[in-house]
Amino acid sequence: MSDPKDQKVDITVDFSGGLEILFSNQKHHALSVPAQDSEGKPANVGFLIKYLCQTLMTDPRADLFVLGDELRPGILCLINECDWELEEEDAYVLQPGDNILFISTLHGG
Amino acid sequence: MNSGETSSSQNGSNSSVPRDTSCPLTEEELDRYSRQMIVPGMGKEAQLRLLNAKVLIIGAGGLGCPAAQYLAGAGIGTIGLVDGDVVERSNLHRQVGHSTSRIGQPKVSSLMTHLKGLNPLPNYVAHECHITPLNAADLVAPYDLILDCTDNPATRYLISDVCVLLEKPLVSAASVQTSGQIIVLNCPPTPQGQLEGGPYPPCYRCCFKKPPPANAQLSCGEAGILGPVVGLMGVAQAGEAIKILASALHASPSKKGTPRHPVEPTLLLYSYSLTSFLSPFTFRALKMAPRKKNCFACGEGSQARLTLEGLKRGEPDYEFFCGGLGSGPGQGVLSAEERISPREFVETVQQHGKEEGKGKYVVLDTREKEHFSFGSIEGAVNVPFGKLLSKAAQMKRSGETPEVEDILPPEVKIEDSGGDENVPIYVVCRRGLDSQEAVEKLKEMGLDRGGKRKIVDIAGGMKAWKEQVDPSFPYL
Known about the structure:
The complex is a heterodimer of chains A (109) and B (476).
Chain A: E1 8-16, E2 28-34, H1 45-56, E3 66-67, E4 70-71, E5 75-79, E6 82-83, E7 99-104
Parallel strand pairs in A: 1-7
Antiparallel strand pairs in A: 1-2, 3-4, 5-6, 5-7
Chain B: H1 27-32, H2 34-37, H3 43-52, E1 54-58, H4 64-74, E2 78-82, H5 107-118, E3 123-127, H6 136-140, E4 145-148, H7 153-166, E5 170-176, E6 179-185, H8 204-207, H9 220-223, H10 227-246, E7 266-271, E8 283-287, H11 302-305, H12 308-313, H13 318-321, E9 339-340, H14 342-356, E10 362-365, H15 369-372, E11 381-382, H16 385-398, H17 404-407, E12 425-428, H18 434-444, E13 455-458, H19 461-468
Parallel strand pairs in B: 1-2, 1-4, 2-3, 4-5, 9-13, 10-11, 10-12, 12-13
Antiparallel strand pairs in B: 5-6, 6-7, 7-8
């Protein structure tokens, strides 16, 4: 067995509604993320959000994605096509094969 | 949201008298609606429900036009239209219920002209005004079902709140650039604050608790919109409306506590990429949570927070909640020395350069490349704002001392003579906001060499350039 610190979990992350501009204009990302956070706890969606800011975000306007440590208002997070409020929100522990979708709510018409 | 008079003009028969459901349809109706009536699940009863239904379409734009067309075609008995704007030429690529010959006309009357040509039988009601907290309840009350086809968050929260208060189902859609969203809310309509015996359907606030900050709100006018994207969402709204009305989902559920229909709130997302042929997805159906206990509008104790009387007193304050109307262009952070008007730029900087054969300078245009592709100030180089910020952040992370060349395209060479006469940089954007931030960012990076290089904002952007210098400039 490898060191648990080096273990990864393979997931896909999608951005929509304009958020993709912060992530090299790419809507779909296949990622291998650490299976544990720095404290050795299983990686959850809250960890993923910070991880995305640190590693995947190419645009420095982080405030378009997070405010403080939280997802900014007006962004929905969907875990395997379900509103994260149906799961455990940012405490949901990432599972291999998960799809995490971030969408900015739209208002134009 | 302007307050406006509600001008209702009824025409045709008064459809507030429901038809006798045993009464046969007229010869014309039988013919006109035959193809939809024979669809499995429709039949005479469903068609009669449509003929007796009253639908209010709020917004006669990119969503409202296609939605209204299909509802009119389907024979909805009464169709109300709310909009206070007039038709503009830049609307027509997507707002297909208007026409070139009706530019300048109120959108409501323009769309009504189109709908009557399509189907003269429905009763069309014109409301040539914007929906406001003052008129919202009066506008919404007479109708069975509401379509939110508007274009800003403050109005969307208002419409949802009124639909909660008056127990109306709401079909809400929105679209910008290449993305669209649609969701059916408050259907079947459920009394405000009722939670026991649920789950009950969510309202707009249950799904979208807080609006995005004003700087993250994209409008179609600012960010652009593709016609078919918003059109699809509008057509889908009509589809949902017909489904709800034909199956009588709009009739209030029994108030004993059990909804008659399972609640499966779904947000349909449509998104594609213009630049990637194989985009990862186009349609996605996302499962949303039901009515929330802590929802401001429909949750526990909401009757004390949100009332029809409160709305008229200005509570809640929708504009404040949604971050005001956004900071307009022209407001900024720079001092007078750091800004130059387009006219002054032409008269001093450009002329000076021509006369003396020197006066080298760089014009840095921070608009998106799509805007830049239509034209720019002579000799301008394009570094889109987002890219500029990314480059600046990258430099900061690497710890290197930034040089001007690092942020400019590689083909641009800067020949600084050294000393106090470094090549100045003039920054321009679309309307004069990003450029000011860019000036600050460049100075923060130390590119002004402690004041030895002028970095100046061309005030008011290419919009002001068109007004002051070149009226034929293709400003978009």
